[in-house]
């Protein structure tokens, strides 16, 4: 599959996440974000493990726990805390700044060169998102801002470590995604019980909403996201993140009757343009590829080989990709 097709498939993940607000507000019980996070992650993770029929082995037990905590278990609660303490627009802008964390961490841990064009794309995309979601009445709350920044850093670290560790030889993305979602869901459950108490009563609409969140918004979306991390650079994947708030704005206009002002439309164009610009291949991406590996070799290196390559030569083109 060529690079454009891989980017398009990976982009379906943040586009799907953009539907979260509409589904939650129209179908799910109110004021239960942590319960919703657990219902998104744990059933989807167990389903993916059942479909793949593969459990972690050796070091992948603790690696899955770390990745699941960074990408899901810590990210969801911190994101929801930011959403409760801040106006939605402020929380969205903090989330849109996440690619900047990935740029720095990818340069440090993966040897991906922090190109000016990448940083520029991340900053301009965040600015465009701010035009879409911020209002003049937006107020800052210190705890909310810290939660929003840490949630973005958590997801950024999870993205980079997912790229660094890869996945075990012979194990597909379904299994690895299932491990992470299960671990993340298990982290969220005690937090939800402590903060929100007993689970709410669910009606038909709630079952429909949670079914969508589990199967499409989380299960399928994270499989595509982690698959994209395996095939693209970490920075390329994370620069697709602004598609989530842009999709939320479009759904709010098309399905919920929310108006879009000219400023918001300009902001959407800026953010989308920066996202596309961030996916354009750099000079290193256009260099001739190395000779193809034999058919018997796995398309992804083992985590041990990945760590060895990174430690040996951080300037190697194969490490930067």
Describe this structure in words.
The protein is mainly α. The chain is built from 16 helices and no strands. It has helices spanning 3-17, 20-27, 33-52, 60-73, 75-85, 88-96, 98-109, 116-133, 142-165, 173-196, 204-231, 234-238, 243-254, 262-279, 303-312, 317-320. The longest helix is centred in the last third of the chain and has 28 residues, at 204-231. The two termini are 16 Å apart.
- How many DSSP H or I helices? 16
- In terms of structural class, how would the helical and strand content be classed? mainly alpha
How would you classify the quaternary structure? single chain
Q: Which radius of gyration do the C-alpha atoms yield?
A: 19 Å
**Alpha carbon gap, first and last residue:** 16 Å
Question: Quick one: biggest sheet?
Answer: none
Ranges where pLDDT stays below 50 over 5 or more residues in a row are 287-321
Question: Overall mean pLDDT score?
Answer: 83
Q: How big a fraction of the residues is strand?
A: under 5%
> What is the number of E strands?
0
Spell the H/E element sequence: HHHHHHHHHHHHHHHH
Tell me the overall shape: globular
The helical percent reads over 70%
Condensed summary:
This protein has 321 residues and is mainly α. It is built from 16 helices and no strands. It is globular and about 50 Å long.
Topology of helices and strands:
Elements: H1 3-17, H2 20-27, H3 33-52, H4 60-73, H5 75-85, H6 88-96, H7 98-109, H8 116-133, H9 142-165, H10 173-196, H11 204-231, H12 234-238, H13 243-254, H14 262-279, H15 303-312, H16 317-320
Helix pairs in contact: 1-11, 1-13, 2-11, 3-10, 3-11, 4-9, 4-10, 5-6, 5-9, 6-8, 6-9, 7-8, 7-9, 8-14, 10-11
């Amino acid at each position: 599959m060529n690079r454009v097709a891989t980017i398009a498939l990976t982009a379906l993940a943040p586009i799907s996440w953009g539907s979260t607000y509409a589904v939650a507000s129209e179908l799910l019980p109110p004021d239960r974000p942590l319960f919703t996070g657990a219902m998104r992650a744990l059933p989807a993770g167990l389903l993916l493990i059942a479909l793949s029929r593969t459990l972690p082995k050796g070091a992948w037990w603790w690696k899955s726990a770390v990745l699941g905590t960074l990408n899901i278990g810590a990210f969801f609660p911190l994101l929801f805390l930011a959403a409760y303490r801040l106006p939605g627009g402020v929380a969205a802008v903090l989330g849109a700044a996440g690619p900047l964390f990935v740029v720095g961490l990818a340069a440090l841990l993966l040897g991906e060169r922090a190109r000016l064009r990448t940083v520029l794309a991340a900053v301009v995309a965040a600015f465009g998102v701010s035009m879409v979601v911020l209002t003049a009445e937006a107020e800052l709350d210190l705890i909310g801002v810290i939660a929003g920044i840490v949630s973005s850093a958590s997801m950024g670290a999870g993205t980079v470590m997912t790229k660094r560790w890869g996945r075990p030889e012979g194990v597909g993305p379904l299994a690895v995604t299932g491990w992470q979602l299960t671990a993340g869901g298990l982290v969220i459950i005690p937090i939800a019980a402590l903060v929100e108490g007993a689970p709410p009563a669910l009606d038909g609409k709630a079952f429909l909403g949670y079914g969508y969140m589990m199967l499409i918004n989380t299960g399928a979306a994270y499989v595509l996201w982690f698959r994209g991390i395996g095939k693209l650079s970490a920075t390329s994947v994370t620069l697709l993140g602004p598609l989530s708030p842009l999709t939320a704005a479009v759904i709010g206009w098309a399905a919920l009757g929310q108006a879009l002002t000219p400023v918001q439309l300009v902001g959407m164009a800026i953010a989308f343009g920066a996202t596309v610009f961030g996916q354009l291949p750099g000079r290193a991406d256009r260099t001739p590829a190395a000779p193809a590996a034999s058919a018997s070799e796995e398309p992804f290196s083992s985590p041990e080989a990945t760590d060895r390559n990174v430690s040996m030569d951080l300037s190697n083109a194969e490490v930067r990709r």
